[in-house]
Q: What sequence folds into this?
């Protein structure tokens, strides 16, 4: 058997849909009917999930640690907001794609800065880029509206058919559809040979280069792709909340995003989605407990997770589901314990 | 010409302040290779301790400064022994997450205890106003900062280069295994250094309340500045971070004076350019191994 066929077989094997994945998405759809009064928070979760999916692509698959992923979220958000505000493109889906492309361009340009240097430099450069964009947005407050943000964004009906309503019902289904479509794309990509080569780079860039993987080109490609995803998430934010202000670039947004991925685990795509649900529930719970000071508890969760160890945490959390899946289907559990990502 | 001197003077004072605030980080991040984003939290602690002592208990300002140092150092050593030391060998990602968690906790805790508005420390009358020096107005407070920080810097350089502890620290950083083989108690050296760095940050926090402003978001607002000092300065000696702080201080003050509309834009751009041009910092060897 040739190596190529081997890789193909491996990739196909891992790309097969497991029934638990289908169950996950059916459940997500069911939520719409189970909690008809909670559309706003649910679309918030979906947006966060998409954003986390984007970070997972670079952190979980390519091992790039980013402290400034909000940069692309912000670009997408402002782009969608400005397009709608000035009536350039009022149809949400087209505006969404355009905002994603704008973030993608920014991602492509900055990727050359990010692939240089090691972890620490990357942390600094990504953080710096987000801060830079925030400073720019503040500087050109005649365009961005400064701290007040863009006011009076009105969205046309989606595809000319579904108008956004007050309760966020349409917004939720719209966000979920976008998330699902982009998830399918991400799933296809990470199970392709391209995705495999990314994992190789993450595990050992030097060795990956030695077996002929064009390391830098792959990193640029995945960083650009992640920027596209983040841009879409930002645009969804603007479109469903009719809001875009300076805090889309905030450091807290990037930091929260890392927490989402840490809770869910990185490197298997569902981590961001599960993490988003858990994170938002935690946030709800803590804000009810101590409004205004919920950040304290979020920080505590972060500290505890790191001290206990991320891998161990996930082993504990997944013990029961894995047992059930193992008993029911008699094969290796699909909710694999994510590999500890040493970076 | 006078404005130029004033800008230079203010910039130097600002830079010296940044150096005292950040030089603890230069050791943890640059030498021990630990990404401690929570460094500003220690500075904030010092600032608030000083504010409470001066404003509420009526301590003289100069008596409260050493206490700001001591309290931050104490908290530093407790946290180092309890939490930080478990993370020295972990990935940068873990360290970032951990320290961001600490920042969030400190911000919310200080907000809860002290309220979210900006705090001012009552200064003694001797520190207010300006001295006229050949036609150049020199702020007394800034002059004091330059004197204190200058002495501290000289002292630090002497300790690192000349004393037994300094050579132990350098040995422990260069090769912890070989150093402990030679009988150096490496964890103790690290703990002491960490605590001292935190103490300096606390002192810097107390001094900076007047210039930078002190509120619960201090650790987040100035995190990037500390990181710039360390990454741009490199870590072969404390001279690198020192020069980087001065550059940053003068650059920031000049930038705010001449191109006020650009805000912090200039600083971030310069940082990114320098990091791309020389990923290991302007001065000396690698900051990230």
A:
């Amino acid at each position: 058997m040739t190596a190529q066929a081997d890789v193909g077989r491996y990739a196909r094997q891992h790309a097969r849909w497991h029934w638990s994945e289908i169950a996950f998405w059916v459940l997500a759809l069911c939520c719409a009917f189970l909690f008809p009064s909670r559309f706003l928070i649910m679309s918030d979760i979906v947006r966060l999930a998409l954003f986390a999916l984007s970070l997972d692509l670079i952190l979980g698959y390519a091992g790039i640690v980013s402290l400034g992923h909000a940069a692309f979220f912000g670009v997408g958000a402002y782009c969608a907001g400005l397009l709608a505000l000035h009536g350039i493109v009022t149809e949400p889906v087209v505006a969404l794609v355009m905002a994603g492309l704008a973030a993608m361009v920014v991602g492509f340009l900055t990727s050359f800065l990010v692939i240089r240097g090691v972890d620490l430099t990357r942390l600094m450069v990504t953080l710096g880029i987000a801060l830079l964009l925030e400073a720019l947005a503040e500087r050109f407050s005649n365009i961005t509206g400064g701290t007040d943000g863009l006011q009076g964004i009105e969205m046309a009906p989606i595809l000319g058919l579904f108008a956004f309503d007050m309760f966020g019902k349409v917004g939720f289904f719209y966000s979920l559809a976008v998330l699902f479509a982009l998830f399918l794309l991400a799933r296809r990509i990470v199970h392709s040979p391209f995705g495999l080569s990314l994992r190789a780079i993450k595990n050992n860039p030097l060795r990956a280069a030695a077996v002929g993987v064009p390391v830098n080109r792959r990193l640029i490609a995945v960083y650009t792709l992640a920027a596209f995803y983040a841009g879409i998430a930002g645009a969804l934010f603007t479109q469903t909340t009719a809001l875009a202000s300076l805090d889309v670039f905030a450091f807290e947004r990037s930091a929260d995003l890392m927490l989402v991925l840490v809770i869910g685990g990185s490197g298997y795509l569902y981590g961001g989605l599960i993490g988003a649900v858990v994170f938002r529930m935690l946030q709800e719970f803590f804000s009810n407990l101590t409004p205004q000071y919920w950040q304290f508890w979020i920080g505590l969760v972060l500290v505890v997770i790191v001290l206990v160890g991320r891998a161990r945490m996930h082993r504990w959390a997944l013990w029961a589901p894995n047992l059930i899946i193992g008993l029911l289907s008699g094969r290796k559990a699909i909710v694999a314990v994510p590999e500890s990502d040493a970076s | 010409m006078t404005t130029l001197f004033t800008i230079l003077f203010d910039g130097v004072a600002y830079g010296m302040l940044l150096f005292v605030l950040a030089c603890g980080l230069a050791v943890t991040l640059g030498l021990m290779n630990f990404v401690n984003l929570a460094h500003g939290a220690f500075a904030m602690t010092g600032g608030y301790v000083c504010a409470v002592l001066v404003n509420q208990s009526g301590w003289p300002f100069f008596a409260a400064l050493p206490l700001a140092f001591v309290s931050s150092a104490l908290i530093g050593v407790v946290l180092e022994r309890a939490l930080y030391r478990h993370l020295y060998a972990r990935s940068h990602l873990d360290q970032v997450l951990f320290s961001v968690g600490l920042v969030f906790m400190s911000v919310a805790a200080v907000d809860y205890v002290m309220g979210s508005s900006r705090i001012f420390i009552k200064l003694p009358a001797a520190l207010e106003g300006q001295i006229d020096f050949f036609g150049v107005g020199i702020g007394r407070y800034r002059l004091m900062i330059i004197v204190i920080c200058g002495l501290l810097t000289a002292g630090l350089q002497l300790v690192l280069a000349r004393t037994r502890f300094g050579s132990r620290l350098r040995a422990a950083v260069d090769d912890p295994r070989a150093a402990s083989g030679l009988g150096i108690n490496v964890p103790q050296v690290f703990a002491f250094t960490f605590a001292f760095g935190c103490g300096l940050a606390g002192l810097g926090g107390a001094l900076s309340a007047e210039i930078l402003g002190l509120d619960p978001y201090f650790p987040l607002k100035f995190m990037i500045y500390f990181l710039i000092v360390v990454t741009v300065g490199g870590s072969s000696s404390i001279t690198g971070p020192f020069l980087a702080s001065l550059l940053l201080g003068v650059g920031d003050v000049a930038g705010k004076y001449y191109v006020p509309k650009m805000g912090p834009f200039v600083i971030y751009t310069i940082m990114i350019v320098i990091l791309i041009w020389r990923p290991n910092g302007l001065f000396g060897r690698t900051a990230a191994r």
